[in-house]
Amino acid sequence: MTQPGTMAPMPQQMQDCVDACMNCHTICEETMSSCMQMGGQAQMQIMRALMDCSEMTRMCADMMMRRSPLSAEMCALCARACDMCAEACMAMPDDQQMMRCAEACRRCAETCRAMAGATM
To answer: For the whole prediction, is pTM greater than 0.85?
Structure first.
């Protein structure tokens, strides 16, 4: 039994989604740094996708952790941002960091889609 004013433990599916979001956020930030070091090689479309995905995943994780009633909608939007970022990263298939980021984005999109369909 929980004490008044405390929340029940986070369901495993939600914890997995928070973890995937935070991992994706971190990798997007690392990939942006990598792009900046490349200079002119990094396309603006990729940078925009990385920035959007980084912000969306962080915000999505925050909303789930505080059990926001908007979490399901946020997860759906986050999945879309992750899909777009993964696709943008695929424009540089020879870049190992971009491929790592695309994989993290795909995993996050998958968990966010599952959470968007779950009752929170």
So the answer is: yes
